Amino acid sequence: MDFRHLGRSGLTVSRIAYGNWLTRSSSESEETEHACVRAALDAGITTFDTADVYAGGRAEESLGRALKGERREGLEILTKVFAPVGPGRNDMGLSRKHVRESIDHSLRRLGMDHVDVYQAHRFDLSTPLEETMEALADVVHSGKAHYIGVSEWTADQIRSGHALARELKVPLVSNQPQYSALWRVPEAEVIPACEELGVGQIVWSPLAQGVLTGKYLPGGAWPEGSRATDSNDGSAELASWLNDDVLSRVQRLRPIAADGGLTVAQLSLAWVLQNPNVSAAVLGASRPEQITDNVKAAGVELDDEVMARIDAVLGPVAHRDPAATVAMSPRSAGWRLA
Fold it and tell me: Where does the record place the NADP-dependent oxidoreductase domain (predicted)?
């Protein structure tokens, strides 16, 4: 496993992080979850990403149990706050009330006294940014988190939040955007702003919800048990990718991957990790062997020719519009988790 500093902070994270978003929101058993966590640890992964809203809080609980007995100082634990976690008007968002209550609930579920990075899951349009940043600063100053981060904030929002964080003397060190060879939205504005500010990316969906594994074939039925066939496991996230043009292009990655002795998934992960502002890529898994196989992408260096070949294949269908990073109210029915 390779490691990298998270932005310009002193915190190092594993280049592949383990995340329990969609896979742990489905009917997967806790036994499988623990086997995946064990595979991640055996592969050298030390960075684990979750959120209060995943599986209604059960994801944090399961992760905490799976990591029980591990040396806490050897792990980097990240969780998030923003999404509705209850029926009340204040059970959501980034108000002082919700942030301060949510960190306590997350720590209880994880069975830990602190997390390493506490992340604002989205930008809250309904709460003053000053209130949010002061509440996150309180979390750090109380010792319940070492650093703060954000997820899917625009470049302007990151700049504003970072300026306030500096005033409050708390380290805003990370952003968690969707990023893959098919979703290049952060490249135009978010990544340049973060490079300037010293904020690192911990990216989600580096395999485009599994499309960049090559398992979905054009014109064919979806593999049994795959995310595309599970209405409870985020299949709606795949809709924009499951067309013959995209899937045919992904199949054209096979000879490129084979030339480097890689699978399509490993090639796709290595592509993401070539970006110097990407500190880590978050991977989920429904089987331990997926972790074991995919971590082999860490440390792979793709030369300029290979990067150009990938871009020639996927570039015409990649999403790049910065406007796709949008702020949403925590009360919005359609906001996406990451």
Answer: 15-313
104-143, pLDDT tens digit by residue? 999 999 999 999 999 999 999 999 999 999 999 999 999 9
Q: Does a structural domain hold residue 338?
A: no
Across the strands, what pairs with 118?
Answer: 79, 148
CA distances 262 to 3, 185, 253, 255, Å, are 20, 26, 10, 9
Amino acid, res. 207: L
Dist CA 146 CA 140 (whole Å): 6
Sequence-separated contacts (24+) of 222-225 with Cβ below 8 Å: 225/286
> What CATH number is attached to the domain comprising 173?
3.20.20.100
Catalytic annotation, pick one of 54, 118, 179, 216: 54
d(CA 100, CA 329): 19
Q: Is residue 330 part of a domain?
A: no
Per the structure block, which two tokens stand in for 70? 């591990």
Q: Pick the closest to residue 206 from 21, 67, 43 (CA basis).
A: 21
Is 54 part of the annotated catalytic residue set?
A: yes
What are the beta bridge partners of residue 235? none
Q: What is the pLDDT of residue 27?
A: 47
β-partners of residue 119 are 80, 149
**In sequence order, which residues have a C-beta less than 8 Å from that of residue 283 and are 6 or more positions away?**
16, 17, 18, 19, 206, 207, 269, 290, 291, 294, 295
Residue 77 lies in a domain: yes
Is 252 part of a structural domain of the chain? yes
**The whole model's pTM is what?**
0.92
Q: Phi, psi (5° rounding) for residue 141?
A: -65, -25
Residue type, 141: H
Q: Which uninterrupted H or E stretch holds 200?
A: strand 200-203
Cβ atoms 102, 142 nearer than 8 A? no
Q: What domain range is 178 assigned to? A: 3-324
Closest by CA position to 102, among listed 111, 90, 87 = 90
For the chain, what is the mean pLDDT?
Answer: 91
How many independent structural domains does the chain possess? 1
Task: Assess contact for 291 and 266: CB atoms under 8 A.
Answer: no
Q: How many CB atoms lie within 10 A of CB 86?
A: 13
